Amino acid sequence: MTKLTNLTLASARDGLKAGEFSAVELTQAHIDAMAANKDLNAFITETPELALEQAAASDAKIKSGDAGAMEGLPIGMKDLFCTKDVRTTAASKILDNFIPPYESTVSGNLKKAGAVMLGKTNLDEFAMGSANITSAFGNVKNPWSADAGKDLVPGGSSGGSAAAVAGELCLAATGTDTGGSIRQPASFTGIVGLKPTYGRCSRWGVVAFASSLDQAGPMTKTVRDAAIMLQSMAGYDVHDSTSAPMDLPNFEAALTGDIKGLKIGIPKEYRVDGMPQEIIDLWKKGEDMLKDAGAEIVEVSLPHTKYALATYYIVAPAEASSNLARYDGVRYGHRAEGELKNLDDLYCKTRGQGFGDEVQRRIMIGTYVLSAGYYDAYYAKAQKIRTLISQDFKNAYESCDVILTPTCPSAAFGIGENEDDPVKMYLNDVFTVPTSLAGLPGISVPTGLSEGGLPLGLQLIGRAFDEETLLRTAGVLETAAGFTAKPKMLGA
Amino acid sequence: MSALDKDTVKKIAFLSRLEVPEEKLEPIAQDLSKILDWVEQLSEVDTDGVEAMSSVAEMTLHWRKDEVTSGDQPDLVLKNAPDQDDHCYLVPKVVE
What we know:
The complex is a heterodimer of chains A (about 500) and B (about 100).
Chain A: H1 9-17, H2 23-36, E1 43-46, H3 48-64, E2 74-78, H4 105-112, E3 116-121, H5 145-148, H6 159-166, E4 172-177, H7 183-189, E5 192-195, E6 215-220, H8 223-233, E7 263-267, H9 277-292, E8 296-300, H10 308-323, H11 343-354, H12 357-370, H13 375-396, E9 402-406, H14 422-426, H15 433-438, E10 442-449, E11 455-461, H16 467-481
Helix pairs in contact in A: 2-3, 6-7, 8-16, 10-12, 10-13
Chain B: H1 6-15, H2 22-39, H3 74-77, E1 84-85, E2 88-89
Antiparallel strand pairs in B: 1-2
């Protein structure tokens, strides 16, 4: 018998249906894998008992023919989704004792579809980071670390989810993406990460970072799995006024494998200075694979690309400073200990103790760019450039259907590297941020290995609410790339 | 132009309601200045006549009936409160 932890969502779904194994067996196999790989620190809170209970209920449903679309499939839940009666921390000390009395829409949708939750995965504090080194619950280790001979970051902010999927501790996991937090860790760990169109998945019950950018999505082993999981996560929600009131297409049915005649745009501005040759080569390879499959390659121009990152680092902190004002030590979460002189003292001490350095840095940047005298020079200016960036994509989609770019400018780097300078760390998101600012769907597909033997992904970007074409193209790229490498730690 | 000094950081920290220890003011001033210097590049973009974008969701908000759809659950609302009494949040004395 194949190892149950080797399965994909699709193959596990089929195996459960055919009665080859039970949901309890499948879940137990993953609980064992979690216990054996605690050094990855992929989970903040593990919920094995709850998972086995859910799995037993799933087995009963499968038997009685009431199985949901993800019935009995064990997944990880990024610890940014509020889960009823299960601690939800956002990887912050300020929420380390927070037990939500309600369920986020996305995690609730997955529950309804029958998915089994193994636990809450680690992340950068409040999803602010690109290396999963800002979590109050410790760094996450990339499962590919043994391949590099040193501890690597898994990327971030959804680093725990990425490590858990790549390390085969769960079949799939949820992520959230504000500027690349699904796609960049997917690229660093050799898995598929899909950020849907803004509005596709409800943000209700997801701890907010930057509300005009935050979007939940699946992190999976295959493109088919991404389609399956998105189907269960997405949909209109009356509780989120920015969720799209649209019917969902059948995403899995979009994977026809046929992209003949499709126009793939290559944005010339993404050829940034100092881009490593292996990234350039991989990008070209991806282009050739899609061309060989019958697509037409066209050059497109996204002229404001070089301003996207700076725009993002004004817009996102501005929204964060406002969103995170709710952590006041009064209603929930951490409250400062000791003598408190007055209410301001309570706020300042609680927040000073509760938030980590990167979160404090972003709150202060956001506060500054929104403050009197600077609002127009920074925030309003950035919002205008965001319009131009969004317009760039609209213009590009007049001559193409999908855009192909690298996901990241490098493979995973070592824990401790790039930490001396915040701007250097921000550069990780140079290729993913523009998509986020424009609200478009993007997917990272593992496409090759670096010279050092580490996974590299390519990013495909689609039109708004056209995840179908995006997934179809991603499926073709995945097949052509034939990425089957696995981290050494799995003994492959 | 965007170099922040310690006093400005102190002011921003208070606006943000963050207690920052004295010895951290200088390193934070340097970090924030670096970030602000870097975003300064945006000033070279011509944005005359460009509208500011606050949301990518091209939709108008729905109307719904103005009805009470939930409520009357003070125990749940207060479940995570650090300090409470008789269905009220407790805070340090604010009036002398």
